């Protein structure tokens, strides 16, 4: 009788165990089969009524089913824990050794920053921003600027020629003719660009540097307009009083022509390598556009006149950011360049 009850208990436990799929269900099963009021405890109580000669065997059977149940519950508990761990690992984000560990943002080059700043200033004064190639022809770089072949003014810009007769733009003035022809008069435009000259480099001379050209053509344009725009630009860029001087300068494409220098902000005007010990830095030659240049650009010189300037953008960045040596700009040194704003 006892044997049959134990077999029935085994069968019931086996069936209910197979339904226990979670740790909570398993714990409930343990309490139901091994707790104080359970089939096992009932069997223990019934042992009292078993005849004496069968008691020992019946007791062993009850104990062995009790340990079987306890063992099965422990084993199933371990299995459920292992399955839960596996599910957690599978649902976790996959490790990818090729992904960058930390997002590192770059920074803008100081030339980009100064260029954008000056562009904003001129845009607010009604100028458009134009682009022009770095490889140009002789006509645009020189002849259209009143610098014919064999003119001594060509010696001022030691030029890199390429085999097909074209050349690397020595100054942004090379775009003047193209832009005059593109828009006609009246016209207000700036055109920044990289320039190349075969120069011996020092603290304020590079073989590759940036300029920003500007032209304004309209009726009744005079030197006063030129001085007004130059002053406005410099006071916006530096946002403080700086010493400026205007002196006569020769460029075949302007008449009259000027050199606009600023007092060196690296040494306060006392003289240092950045200003070749003069205390002044040549920053922005300018002048009234020569009638020959206007005519070549298709502009009616009876009606219109204009001014042009060629701002040394790299030198302006030196002064603005206190960079003592112009060669730092092209150094590619992340240590130096990453000090500038990243947005
Ligand atoms: C010119 O290039 C003229 N096209 C400027 C101009 C435009 C004059 C319109 C009149 C009217 P210049 O060679 O001086 O001029 O150069 C202009 C500016 O570019 C200089 O004042 C200087 O700030 C900068 N610059 C010239 N050469 C270098 C160089 N090697 N390294 C760095 N900056 C330079």
Q: How would you describe the oligomerization state of the chains in this entry?
A: single chain
Element-by-element helix/strand order: HHHHHEEHEHEEHEEEEHEHH
Report low-confidence residues grouped into runs of 5 or more.
none
Name the overall outline: rod-shaped
What structural class is derived from the secondary structure elements?
Answer: alpha+beta
| Total of helices | 11
Chain-averaged pLDDT: 91
Q: In angstroms, what separates the terminal alpha carbons?
A: 88 Å
Radius of gyration: 44 Å
What does this structure look like?
The chain is of the alpha+beta class. The chain has 2 domains: 2-91, no CATH class; 110-337, Bira Bifunctional Protein, Domain 2 (BirA Bifunctional Protein, domain 2, 2-Layer Sandwich). Helix content is 41%, strand content 17%. The protein has 11 helices and 10 strands. The strands form 2 sheets. Strands 1, 4, 5, 6, 7, 8, 9 and 10 form an 8-stranded mixed beta sheet that branches. β6 and β7 form a beta hairpin. α1 (2-19) runs antiparallel to α2, α1 packs parallel to α4 (52-91) and α2 runs antiparallel to α4. The longest helix has 40 residues, at 52-91. The mean pLDDT is 91. Adenosine-5'-[phenylalaninyl-phosphate] binds at residues 171, 173, 197, 199, 205-206, 209, 211, 213, 251, 254, 257, 282-283, 285-287, 308-310, 312, 314-315, 326. Adenosine-5'-[phenylalaninyl-phosphate] binds next to β5, β7, β9, β10 and α10.
């Amino acid at each position: 009788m006892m044997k049959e009850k134990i077999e029935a208990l085994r069968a019931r436990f086996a069936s209910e165990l197979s339904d226990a799929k979670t740790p909570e269900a398993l714990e409930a099963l343990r309490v139901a089969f091994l707790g104080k009021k359970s089939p096992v405890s009932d069997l223990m109580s019934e042992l009292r009524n078993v005849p004496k000669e069968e008691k020992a065997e019946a007791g062993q059977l009850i104990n062995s089913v009790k340990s079987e149940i306890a063992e099965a519950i422990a084993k199933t508990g371990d299995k459920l824990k292992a399955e839960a761990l596996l599910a957690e690992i599978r649902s976790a984000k996959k490790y990818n050794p090729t992904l960058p560990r930390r997002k590192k943002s770059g920074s803008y080059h100081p030339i980009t920053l100064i260029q954008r700043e000056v562009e904003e200033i001129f845009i607010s004064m009604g100028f458009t921003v134009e682009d022009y190639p770095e490889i140009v022809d002789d006509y645009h770089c020189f002849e259209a600027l009143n610098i014919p072949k064999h003119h001594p003014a060509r010696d001022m810009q030691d030029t890199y020629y390429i085999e097909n007769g074209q050349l690397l733009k020595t100054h942004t003035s090379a775009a003047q003719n193209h832009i005059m022809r593109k828009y006609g008069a009246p016209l207000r435009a700036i055109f920044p660009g990289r320039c190349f000259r075969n120069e011996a480099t020092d603290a304020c001379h590079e073989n590759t540097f940036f300029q920003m050209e500007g032209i304004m053509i309209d009726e009744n344009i005079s030197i006063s307009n030129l001085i007004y725009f130059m002053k406005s630009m410099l006071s916006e860029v530096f946002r403080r009083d700086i010493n400026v001087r205007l002196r006569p300068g020769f460029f075949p494409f302007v008449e009259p022509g000027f050199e606009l220098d600023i007092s060196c902000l690296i040494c306060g005007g006392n003289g240092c390598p950045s200003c070749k010990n003069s205390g002044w830095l040549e920053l922005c030659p300018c002048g009234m556009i020569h009638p020959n240049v206007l005519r070549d650009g298709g502009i009616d010189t009876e009606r219109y006149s204009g001014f042009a300037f060629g701002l040394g953008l790299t030198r302006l960045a030196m002064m603005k950011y206190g960079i003592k040596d112009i060669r730092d700009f092209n150094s590619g040194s992340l240590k130096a360049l990453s000090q500038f704003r990243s947005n």
